[in-house]
Amino acid sequence: MPTGAQVVAVEPLAEMRAQLEEVVPGVEALEGTAEALPLEDDSADAITVAAAFHWFRRDEALAEFARVLRPGRGLAIVYNLRDPESELQQELSRMF
To answer: Are the C-beta atoms of residues 10 and 38 closer than 8 Å to each other?
Structure first.
């Protein structure tokens, strides 16, 4: 379904990139990591991370997100469950 948006995925594993491109036509899947995004500065309107942020080196990933996001644009970190005891959840709650 056309959305009018350009969707780019970043994934370190070739097998996962190939599967994504097969299942979701029109999505560009680039080799990279959250800590070293293969994107230009100020080039993204949004970054979405679903159930994966805990695998990232947090400070490096957040610095990369800030580098590639256009000013005033957004970051969505999505999990299925909310854990109020989680240090990450507490920090995100304070920030947002």
So the answer is: yes
